[in-house]
Amino acid sequence: MSSELPDLHAKYGLTNIINACGKMTHLGGAIVLPEIRPQVSSSLGHFFDLDEIQTRAGETIAKAFGAEWGCVTACTGAGIALSVAACMTGKDAGRVAQLPDTTGMKNRVVLQKGHAVNFGAPVTQMCRLAGASVVEIGTVNGSTEVHLRHAIDDNTAAVVFVVSHHTTRFGSIPLTRVVEIAHESGVPVIVDGAAQSFVMAKIIAAGADLAICSGHKFLCGTTAGVVAGRRELVEAVYAQNRGVGRPMKVGKEGIFGVLASLETRMATDIDQWQAQQDAKRDRIHERLRGIDGVGLDVENDPNGNPFSRAQIRIDPTRARISAAVVASALEAGNPSIRVRAHHVDEGWFTVDANELTGDDVELVCDRMLDVLQASPEEKARLTKMYGGGREGVPEFSWLS
Fold first, then answer.
1. Euclidean distance between CA atoms 155 and 123, whole angstroms
2. Which of 2, 133, 262, 264 could form a disulfide with 64 if both were Cys (CB 3.0 to 4.6 A apart)?
3. pLDDT tens for residues 114-163?
4. What is the spatial distance between Cα 204 and Cα 5, in angstroms, rounded to a whole number?
5. Which CATH number fits domain 270-387: 3.30.70.790, 3.30.360.10, 3.40.50.720, 3.90.1150.180?
6. What are the residues facing 312 on neighbouring strands?
């Protein structure tokens, strides 16, 4: 039997993808680092006491993020649901067994409306999975301390705070003040920091009682969620495995993946890593500089993580093609190139180089140049195929 790994794309007829979008769950999260794979692979051939390896994970998570304790869940979404459950039940086995019936428990969860985002599913739904009732405060572009104080009452189990590019970028109460106000009433704060493994220590230092990040985004490990925070509450999160958390349990490979990922992270020179990402970003700018109708900028990570992205702005009148059409044409090719296209209706997209090799960067740039420097006839064809509108006219308008 050959030890050579199978080509899964060929075996199952799957699309070859170049990920210029970033750590996206729908693309498989991240490439698992070579340093992590041997430990995960080794775990597959043995039995373990899951409670015991979760204890080792708790120790490592605490060390990595400066928390009292930690545990591993199936994913960040599971971590949110189980953290909310933990704040309602504590470690009371009877209450754990009672959920999602919250009779006799504090069951209100307060969330700023600008944080009620959809990451693939609504954050609010993750809270409701545990049986909680979600109270959204403020408006989509503004919550105040008055709103928060008014919403917290004797039936409030937790306040949830989201650190994500999906949230509104202004008008929200910052984490430090949310923690102070919630703690005045003895209410714990849960932070959803799915893609924020680089800043988890800052989240914990700000006073979050429970913070959750992904094991398969910037930690570049196997699919899992990492919960860190106050030991009593983390242990209550783990207790949910005997209740509503049972269908969200993580396997041995997920736990060992987190252990290896955190050990790798703690040994990584972050400045050197950032310089490597910056070099790839700069190469993208170098390749695209000087094209008529194309503007280049740097998009720093909005949450303070140590990387930035290459922002590509396209003036459809001068370039004779829109950002949305360029992104669609790249995706339709072979291999399929997925750029970070959240803002194409505003005339721009970004290229996230974190998951790109040097060769990938050149391929992505070659393909972008093919589209951006195509003949007027080819641009018109692409616009008709992917734009749904006239050449040079943006696809989205608030009016129609």
1. 20
2. 262
3. 999 999 899 999 999 999 999 999 998 899 999 999 999 999 999 999 99
4. 40
5. 3.90.1150.180
6. 296, 349
Dig out the tokens for 103 from the structure. Answer: 């009779």
One-character DSSP codes across 164-175:
STTS-SSSSPPH
How many CB atoms within 10 Å of residue 398?
5
pLDDT digits (tens, 9 = 90+) for 15-53: 999 999 999 888 988 999 999 999 999 999 999 999 999
Domain 32-266: give its CATH code: 3.40.640.10
Residues in Cβ contact with 27 at an 8 Å cutoff, skipping those fewer than 6 apart: 17, 19, 21, 338
Q: Alpha-carbon dihedral of residues 67, 69, 75, 77, nearest 10 degrees? A: -70
- pLDDT tens, residue by residue, 332-371: 999 999 999 989 999 999 999 999 999 999 999 999 999 9
Predicted confidence at residue 2, as pLDDT, reads 47
pLDDT tens for each residue of 208-240: 999 999 999 999 999 999 999 999 999 999 999
Round the CA-based radius of gyration of the chain to a whole number and report it. 23
3-state secondary structure of 111: strand
Instruction: Report d(CA 239, CA 231) in Å as an integer.
Output: 12
Closest to 277 in 3D by CA, of 207, 361, 209:
361
Q: Which is it for the CA torsion 234, 237, 242, 246, positive or negative?
A: negative
| DSSP state for residue 193 in the 8-state scheme | -
> Rounded mean pLDDT of 179-197?
97
Q: Helices (DSSP H) in the chain: which residue ranges?
A: 8-12, 37-43, 50-65, 76-89, 93-98, 123-129, 145-151, 175-184, 200-205, 231-239, 252-266, 270-288, 316-319, 323-332, 358-372, 376-382
| Two structure tokens written together for 303 | 């949450």
341-344: long-range contacts, CB 8 A cutoff, minimum separation 24:
341/21, 342/165, 344/395
